[in-house]
Amino acid sequence: MTEEQNRRLSALDGRINELLALCERQKTEIRELTLKREQEKSTVQQVQGELQALKAKYRDLLTAHVMSFEQGDDMKSARKRLLNLVREIDACINYITQLNG
Length: 101
What we know:
This protein has two helices and no strands. By secondary structure, the protein is mainly alpha-helical. The longest helix has 65 residues, at 3-67. The protein is rod-shaped.
């Protein structure tokens, strides 16, 4: 090989090594980002669960608040909410009974 070919081969070898190092850095970054995404996903699921629990507590408090009033419209609304809650409970019981069949 000539001196020029050796120089080009050496330059090519250097660039290939740089490219391989870049690939490794990218792989490491992808792993880190994937791990972070999974952690964030877990956090989101936890917060969604807490939100659902808070919504249920809010509905219960709202129902209790409405039931505490003795006015006609409020009583009708409270009765309606209470009937809906009873229907939901009955549906859940029926579903569980069917599962346990």
